[in-house]
Amino acid sequence: MDKPILIFIILLLLAKHFIASRFEVNLVRQLSNRNLSQNFVVSPFAIRQALVLLYLGKDTRRDYQLARALKITGRLNGKIISYFGKARFKAIKQDFTMANRIYLAPDYSTLEQLKKLSANIGVDVENMNFAENSKSEDEIKQWLNNLIDKSGLNLFANNDVSNITQMVAVQGISVSPLWKHRAISMSKMPFSIARPNRKPFVYKVQMMYTVAPFEYFNDEDVRGVMIPFSKTDIGMLVLLPRRQLSTQKVLQNLDKYLQIKLQKAEETHLLLPIFTVQETINLNDALQALGIKKIFTEDDDDSQATVAKFRQYAQLESKPNRVLMSADIGGDNDQRVVNVNKPFVFVIKDQNTIYMVGRMESIR
Q1: Is the predicted pLDDT of residue 202 greater than 90, yes or no?
Q2: Maximum separation of any 2 CA atoms in the chain, in Å
Q3: How far, in Å, are 110, 203, 226, 345 from residue 261 at the CA level?
Q4: CATH 3.30.497.10, the chain: domain bounds
């Protein structure tokens, strides 16, 4: 095969994978423009599941705002359903804990159609009378708590649900990765946080250490390393900003860094902090900023009332897969060393799906 043709085919494949993740990247950009916690995590895949079900569940007239935001205009229903089936199967195989449910008022127009499709997408659909707002909120929180411990505690603000509410979409996802390359030892190592016009704040955190072949890239702005999981081709891409680049800038330009091709795996000394991050996010504003309006106003664009609520709880626990002994850690000068010793962004993904995105500004 001619080299130019081969390059063209590779570029087409890269573009296909990027387009498949465009909604996720746009959502992360919108969230990063808002007041996020220093350490946060979100599952773009889980919210996309819920929105796709709402799109496919229309009996007749489709919501083209949803189609444009989700980047599925012109896609066949069968292909959409097949994609989510494969992505969910892989996540379950990797032991992700996932909960996804849409609560709808009894008079919601497409309730029965949504119930027929729900199993294909992996999103439950339930009736809910929202008139008794506190009782409704308690029931939803209890459902989520039963699947992921304490995940429903901060799901709603006071009187978040009312008698005008028509829909509450809730996602929960918890991931504790099983690493393909198991950690060898752990040790307390320096972690440095840059501060404007001041010396960096440096303190020691618990890190796990391994040496194994890892895919990577070196960009002028960001250094990336892909840490594979054990059971599938899902992995955690760690993005380490260089110079004075902030994690917020990395999140806002995530599309740029996800398009950088990873280099062939090389033997690498990896030091990764042991950390847990969890977040409860109100997604309403970010979704509306993406052009999704109708489901929030019940097709009345002039309405100031919000009839839909989108809430998500996400948790990531990065730790060794076994009990480790503490040890001094170091890499040979002539070998690659990736030391995640400053704020970073992480993306849990495979070739086609972004399951989670987050950042760690500090390690507690």
Answers
A1: yes
A2: 68
A3: 43, 33, 11, 17
A4: 12-176+277-317
Residue 177 banded pLDDT, cuts 50, 70, 90: very high
Query: Which of 1.10.8.60, 2.40.50.870, 3.30.420.40, 3.30.497.10 would CATH assign to domain 12-176+277-317?
Result: 3.30.497.10
pLDDT tens, residue by residue, 65-84: 888 899 887 777 889 899 99
Residue 330 is predicted with a pLDDT of: 53
pLDDT band at residue 279 using 50, 70 and 90 as cut-offs: very high
Query: Sheet of 167-175: strands edge to edge?
Result: 124-127, 97-104, 167-175, 308-318, 275-282
List where CATH 2.30.39.10 sits in the chain.
185-275+320-360
- The 3-state DSSP class for residue 51 equals helix
Neighbours of 188 (CB within 10 A): 12
Compute the average pLDDT of residues 151-166.
88
d(CA 303, CA 120): 33
185-275+320-360: CATH, from 3.30.10.20, 2.30.39.10, 1.10.287.470, 3.40.640.10 = 2.30.39.10
- pLDDT value for 332: 45
Q: Which two tokens stand for residue 77?
A: 């229903």
